[in-house]
Design goal:
The complex is a heterodimer of chains A (about 350) and B (about 500). Chain A is mainly α. Chain A has 14 helices and no strands. The radius of gyration of chain A is 21 Å and the shape is globular. With about 500 residues, chain B is α/β, with parallel strands linked by helices. Helices cover about 35% and strands about 25% of the residues of chain B. Chain B is built from 17 helices and 21 strands. In chain B, the strands form five sheets. A six-stranded mixed beta sheet of chain B has the order 6-9-10-3-11-12, with helices on both faces. In chain B, helix 12 crosses helix 13, helix 13 packs across helix 14 and helix 14 packs parallel to helix 15. Classes of the chains: A mainly alpha (about 350), B alpha/beta (about 500). Chains A and B meet through helix 8 and helix 9 of A and helix 11 and helix 12 of B.
């Protein structure tokens, strides 16, 4: 059997099992009862509307950011700069929505989101053009740009836009906010889950079709799989790389839909809390598949909120350990499964 | 006395025998040349001697004793040294530091630079290498870097020195100096094994020559009986069967020009890769280009297909659509991780969506029409055998239905049946009115298919033969004609 789907399913399942096993051992080593801890997570997150809603809420920005990264990763563009890109886009979206609120709602939303997208994309354009023209690895340039972008946002926020004594922008008017799930389903009572989650799911499905069903998507993946052959097969490698980088970086701005438009109503410095890096893990776990990213994001959301639920028994940082273990095991198991499939 | 003896060495890579039952002896204190085309198995044999590869079968004797190398380290212990095609030097180290790296001698935990310096300087003087050991590598030119590589071998007291195509990077003057160095080596009692595919060099330095072709040892000759024209024929092989005849010969002459190349020059990194190329591809015609690899064939492909636009001159029409079967199927020909039809989907010109059904139909059609064997429909191409991969690439490029087709080494590494298949397809396309460019180093293929044959050497066409001339020459004295082509390819005859 040589199906890619089966291979991926096997390697993802095996790495999840391995992670679970290792977590067990770690919990035993620090003298806790793993069964008790897993039971609490099960009870608090999966069996409670509030907990489940919070897990999905935490998954939403990961989906947005992961989708952006999946475009890049499919083309073998290792964009490590999502953290900066998403902050830039979110900042701009929050500002524009506030300052353009006198405009008709629909126009305001279209302008704000588009400009936010463009600003994030611009911070993908810089590393893309350096890569294309000078062959400098995007890993280095995007990491460095993270620092620059965050410092710039900090400067403009503190000096021009922040509400006094805070590090956040003005709150956008209530009528611009996305509806919350709890307004319609009492099951989710109290959770911050909002309709940006639905938008994230739609975006995943659309992205899946673009990447796997359109010619442009095939070109993206072809470049990622074999750049030289792509060139010889008539693909304009530089152009596709550039466009993919722009789309990928641009999509990360949509994180703002969840935090700004769906939750707080403003941009706050440091809100992302390394979201751009966690999203790398989410995307790798899903093997760059947009549909897979929904599931891996939800899993990370559960871990994230589960960490809070068990905080009284073990430090919630144990969840970071689990996230790290997931990545390590997917990378190593993937290699093994691949070797096994090659031999067959 | 024989210092190295290969006995019945066989080495397989997959189904291909890189070395096929080679028995060869190398005399101590001599210069032994091993020549042959690319892929003839020279480098494989040398890597076996140097302990990089293990032979599947056969034995090696060094100084009369049977050896069984586990790695290069074992070979180095027996004073075998190899000069690789690519330099392995650290730019920011001096010559001294580079040479002693990995063979440092220490005194009380400190590296003993003093004695190393002494030894190096005495070697440099002995062989007249003209190097300053405190110079940084980054300040050296290519021939000096090569001397540093040689110095490494000498510093490690190598007695059997393998030189893997050392002259490809040298200018004529540097070449002369290099041969002097080799002669010095011989005088000092070293044994030199020189791998090359340049005949003129062989004549200059060698004591004995062995010719490899398709993994077999086909010819051996001593210096005294060396005849360049015999040698070149042995390298290329005898052309036995001309099995194809095309049936639309009147159309060929009048076929309209689909692609015109005028005064095309290409200079890259200061090297003149293509010089004043003028030719055209005609409907119904197959134009063959024949030459030793690396004489500009790849560049021609790249400028014609638009991958490289840095040339000067004219290539018309500008908006041409060209089908290309590239020379390296794995690196350039396909996306291994995708199926036959997905590869086609990327390559075709229409922008549509990817329906599974559409793919299935295309793939079924390709498989039937071109007799491609796939494990199942939609299987990724990496699970196809080499011959089937190549057939799939040929199929893909043909059903694109472009007017101009370029085949670069279309039958390299495929078995005879697939080769036959591909040749038939090429002829079919020509008969349908396509203009075809066939680049190959396989003379069989070129002579049987081409309507026109160009010999390329160092980026320019040395000579061209029309179909009539080809036929006449082949009829009158085939072996002499092949010798002549061989000499042209090697740049001996002008």
């Amino acid at each position: 059997m040589k199906s890619k789907f089966l291979q991926n399913t096997i390697s993802i399942s095996l790495s999840l099992i391995l992670t679970l096993f290792l977590t067990f051992i770690i919990l035993l080593i620090i003298g806790k009862n793993p069964f008790e801890i897993f039971y609490i997570i099960y009870e608090e997150v999966l069996m409670s509307g509030y907990g489940f809603g919070q897990a999905l809420f935490k998954a939403t920005p990961l989906i947005f950011c992961g989708i952006g990264l999946s475009f890049c990763f499919n083309a073998s563009i290792f964009n490590i700069g999502a953290e900066g890109q998403l902050n830039a886009g979110t900042f701009i979206i929050a500002l524009l929505l506030y300052y353009l609120s006198p405009l008709p709602t629909i126009i305001n939303i279209i302008i704000s989101i588009s400009v936010g997208f463009i600003v994030s994309a611009f911070f993908g354009f810089i590393p893309a053009i350096i890569k294309i023209k000078k062959g400098v690895s995007e890993v280095i340039t995007t990491i460095m740009l993270n620092f620059i972008i965050l410092a710039l946002i900090n400067y403009f926020l503190i000096n021009y836009f922040a509400v006094r004594e805070t590090v956040r922008t003005e709150k956008i008017p209530e009528f611009l906010m996305l509806p919350k799930f709890s307004d319609y389903f009492s099951f989710f009572e109290g959770s911050a889950l909002n309709f940006s989650f639905i938008l994230a799911i739609i975006l995943s499905i659309v992205s899946y079709f673009i990447i796997y069903k359109t010619k442009f998507g095939y070109k993206i993946r072809a470049i990622g799989l074999n750049e030289t052959a792509s060139k010889y097969m008539g693909i304009k490698v530089n152009i596709v790389t550039l466009i993919t980088f722009l789309i990928g970086a641009g999509i990360t701005s949509l994180v703002g839909l969840n935090y700004v438009v769906g939750y707080k109503g403003y941009f706050e410095f440091g809100f992302s809390n390394n979201l751009g890096f966690t999203a790398i893990a989410v995307t790798l776990l899903a093997k760059n598949n947009p549909i897979g990213i929904i599931f891996s994001s939800i899993m990370f959301g559960i871990l994230d909120f589960g960490g809070l639920a068990i905080n009284t028994i073990v430090p919630k940082e144990i969840m970071l350990v689990i996230q790290g273990l997931v990545i390590l095991s997917i990378i190593s198991i993937d290699k093994l499964v691949n070797i096994y499939f090659e031999k067959k | 006395m024989e210092i190295v003896e290969f006995k019945n060495i066989t080495k397989k890579f997959g189904n291909i025998k890189a070395n096929d039952n080679i028995t060869l002896a190398i005399k101590e204190n001599s210069v032994h040349c091993i020549i042959g085309e690319n892929g003839a198995g020279k480098s494989t044999l040398m890597k076996i001697l140097f302990g990089v590869f293990k032979p599947d079968d056969g034995e090696i004797f060094i100084r009369g004793e049977k050896v069984n190398f586990k790695s290069s380290l074992d070979a180095i212990k027996l004073k075998i040294g190899m000069l690789h095609q690519h330099f392995m030097l650290i730019d920011n180290f001096t010559i001294l530091e580079n040479v002693i790296l990995g063979a440092e001698k220490s005194k009380n935990y400190w590296i003993d630079f003093l004695s190393a310096k002494k030894k190096l300087n005495s070697i440099i003087n002995k062989y007249n290498l003209k190097l300053n050991i405190d110079e940084y590598i980054s300040n050296l030119n290519i021939s000096e870097k090569q001397k540093v590589e040689l110095l490494k071998l000498l510093y490690r007291d190598s007695e059997i020195i393998i030189l893997d195509e050392p002259t490809a990077v040298l200018t004529p003057i540097e070449l002369k100096e290099f041969f002097n160095i080799i002669n010095n080596f011989r005088q000092e009692g070293k044994t030199i094994i020189l791998i090359t595919h340049k005949l003129s060099e062989v004549k200059e330095v060698s004591d004995k020559v062995s010719v490899l072709r398709k993994g077999r040892l086909v010819y051996e000759v001593n210096k005294d009986n060396l005849d360049i024209s015999v040698l070149s024929r042995k390298i290329i092989g005898d052309v036995d069967a001309i099995s194809y005849t095309s049936n639309v010969s009147d159309l060929k002459v009048s076929g309209e020009e689909l692609l015109i190349v005028e005064n095309v020059n290409l200079i890259e990194n200061g090297i003149h890769k293509l010089k004043n190329l003028n030719f055209s591809l005609r409907k119904y015609n197959i134009m063959g280009i024949c030459g030793v690899e690396g004489n500009g064939q790849n560049e021609i492909v790249e400028v014609l297909t638009g991958i490289n636009n840095k040339y000067t001159g004219k290539i018309l029409p500008e908006d041409r659509k060209v089908s290309l079967v590239p020379d390296d199927r794995i690196k350039k020909g396909m996306i291994e991780e995708m199926s036959v039809s997905e590869n086609y989907f990327i390559r075709q010109n229409i922008n549509n969506y990817a329906y599974k059904k559409l793919f299935m139909n295309i793939e079924k059609m390709m498989i039937e029409r071109f007799d491609i064997r796939v494990p199942y429909i939609g299987c990724r191409m990496k699970y196809l055998s080499g011959g089937n991969q190549q057939k799939a690439i040929v199929a893909r490029e043909i059903i694109l239905n472009n007017d101009i087709l370029i085949f670069s080494h279309p039958t390299r590494g495929v078995d005879i049946k697939a080769m036959d298949n591909i040749h038939k397809e090429i002829l079919d396309e020509a008969n349908k009115g396509k203009a075809i460019l066939l680049i190959s180093s396989d003379l069989d293929e070129l002579l049987s298919l081409s309507d026109e044959l160009f010999i390329i050497f160092k980026g320019s066409f040395l000579k061209s033969f029309s179909k009539e001339e080809l036929n006449r020459q082949i009829k009158s004295d085939k072996s002499r004609f092949i010798e002549k082509i061989g000499e042209l390819m090697m740049g001996i005859l002008k």
